[in-house]
Specification:
Helix 1 (22-43) crosses helix 5 (126-141) and helix 3 packs across helix 4 (75-87). This protein has two domains: 44-120, Winged helix-like DNA-binding domain superfamily/Winged helix DNA-binding domain (Arc Repressor Mutant, subunit A, Orthogonal Bundle), CATH 1.10.10.10; 125-262, Trafficking protein particle complex subunit 3 (Muramoyl-pentapeptide Carboxypeptidase, domain 2, 2-Layer Sandwich), CATH 3.30.1380.20. A hairpin with an 8-residue loop joins strand 6 and strand 7. By secondary structure, the chain is an alpha+beta fold. 49% of the residues lie in helices and 12% in strands. The chain has a four-stranded antiparallel β-sheet, with helices on one face.
Length: 265
Amino acid sequence: MVALLVLPSTDCVTTPGLVLTDQVENAAARSAEHQIERLAAALGDPTRRRVFFMVRESDDAVSKDQVAEIVGIDRRLAGFHLDKLVDQGFLTAEFHRRTGRSGPGAGRPAKHYRLAAQELTMSLPARHYDLLASWLLKAAADESGAPRQDILERIGYEFGFEVGLAEVAAGRTRPGQDGVNAVEQVVRLLSRYGFAAQTAGDGTIRACACPFEELAFDDPERICGLDRAIWKGMLAAFDHDATLSVATTRARGDEACVAEVLGTA
């Protein structure tokens, strides 16, 4: 259980805003689209996600035999997914002998894999890569004909609602019981998923971080819309009559993402 984070101070570390020309903005949008497509393509397969996260969590380069043993798959299948992740730029491959032996009789150097240099700086925890890739793939497979952003936000809302209902089903809280505040419950769940959420008890939710922050700054309309849909779904699980009104957004240059909750029980 993640403890409720209620802080007296509502200051966040700000990210300096950038004044972009139309040309630069279009380039940033194309870059964001490419990152999203790359993420969904690389991590859409559940086994490949497990392989990637295993390598990502390792302190050193690993062989396909090590991956196969930990993930619980055949070594040939492990090698297939590892090489695909190399092709997609998520991993790098190198050859060396673990025993330190050299010369005749030492055997062929084994192929080992480690996280690519550019991936070392990425701040999203593994569970959020997993979630985002799943949502994007689900949205791409939707054939309802609805606008793609509407589909993505509906998926985010359903996820938030299911997370909230899981808390209720587990008996950790019950909507309407004495002492249960919908805002506080949403803050607790948001903090669990990396939003660094806070509330000062005034009916507002303030988030100083986002688990999808790098993509959000490149594509605020799509990613921030998904974020707020998750917030709304969580809120509905605890108070179906409450509504969420977004006031500020970090990805658009504000100090924090702030939303006001209206009509709470």
